[in-house]
Amino acid sequence: MSSAPLPSARATSRPSQRCALDLCTQWPAVEAEHTNAMVMDLFNERREITSLAVVEHDRPIGLINRDIFLSQMSKPYHREVYDRKSCIAFMDKEPLVVDAGLSIEELTRRTVEVGEKALADGFIVTREGRFAGLGLGVQLMRIVSDLQAEKNRQIMHSIEYASVIQRAMLRSSREALAVMEQDATLVWQPRDVVGGDFYHFAQHADGWFGAIADCTGHGVPGAFMTLIASASLTQALQQLGPRDPSALLAAINASVKAMLGQSGGISESNDGLDLACFWVDRGSHSLTYAGARMPLHLLAPDAADVLTLAPLRLGIGYADSPLDQCWPATTLPLPPGSLLFATTDGLIDQIGGPRRTSFGKRRALSRLSESRALPTAAFCEQLSADLAHWQGDEMRRDDLTFLCIRVA
To answer: In what order do the strands lie in the sheet with 130-135?
Structure first.
């Protein structure tokens, strides 16, 4: 029998990256001329040994799996026939053999290529071609799991900090909404830590501006899109002012397409956003609205039904939207006490109920009509409860944003 000396392997300098040597166990090996009887004795003496490397001049030539070996030798007459024969009779002649310096990532790839055999039997670790020890599949799976957990922890830490950035980006709009004369409530709930919905509110001497947006995707990709779209909206407001939502949507479309390289013939991105923009003029008590695939709902104090201002059924950005596309605006009277309601499709498209169907626009607007006399906070609380009951055990499908404002 030969053991696996590793005097210089761990004493000399090693790269900081984890490698096969970290999984190397100094178990004994057997020479090719050793008999099966000697292997049987070793397995009986060392019950913790799951595999034995077979070496020739200290270089590995095979691997004996304990369970397979004992199963074969327990068959009738096998001890009589094979006891005195060379142990190579029951060895795997093509085990996984890796160098001690092989990275864990490459070792994992090689193990997957070999298949279940490498996980069950383990693998042979060598240094300069000579036997150094054995690595176990369970050890590899454990270290891969630990490495993945650490990577996930780092990723989640980054995403959580990205959430801080995204919320900071929206803070000025939340503050503007809070100090408005109107009774206003906003619900913003990303499906993940960060999300693809955003909003923008600003108060001016003669009125106030509002926007609700739903960008492509959710999670990190959606959050990236909110940064692009929000920057485009801010730039458009600085250049054009808040009173012409139609012009704002056209400017945002051109900006998003330019940032995502969608203006040429071939684009790598087919992303964009749905957006509802509106301007409330205090002097004329009027509302001007323009929307890209996102309607705005109006419930006047003396109206029996909710009026839906329909958007243009074309999103902002995206590869197929023309660079010079125009989203028409609608202007209409806005009596004091009117309710404005807008929502992203995270509310409308949520699956639930007894038949696993979408929550739907009708259900939301019915709740708006029923709760018209309540403060907007109470309405939003009721609508959130309706959605939670409807959703039940179903997973959240998308980011959720909805807004209700009672115009002063």
So the answer is: 97-99, 123-127, 130-135
Summary mean pLDDT of the chain: 91
Strand order in the sheet with 29-31: 29-31, 51-56, 59-65
Cβ–Cβ under 8 Å, residues 69 and 43: yes
The alpha carbon of 258 is separated from its chain's Cα centroid by a whole number of angstroms, namely 26
Q: Are 33 and 81 in contact, with CB atoms under 8 Å apart? A: no
d(CA 143, CA 164): 32
- Residue 231 CA to residue 317 CA, distance in Å, equals 14
In the predicted structure, residue 4 carries a pLDDT above the cut 80:
no
Q: Delineate the domains of the chain, giving CATH numbers in brackets.
A: 20-135 (3.10.580.10), 163-406 (3.60.40.10)
> Does this model's pTM top 0.90?
no
329 Cβ contact partners less than 8 Å away, ≥ 6 residues apart: 244, 245, 246, 288, 289, 290
Q: Is 96:23 a contact under the CB 8 Å cutoff?
A: no
Question: What letter represents residue 223's amino acid?
Answer: A
Q: How far is CA 119 from CA 129, 235, 390, in A?
A: 22, 57, 46
- Taking only the tens place, the pLDDT of each residue in 315-366 is 999 988 899 999 999 999 999 999 999 999 999 999 999 999 999 999 999 9
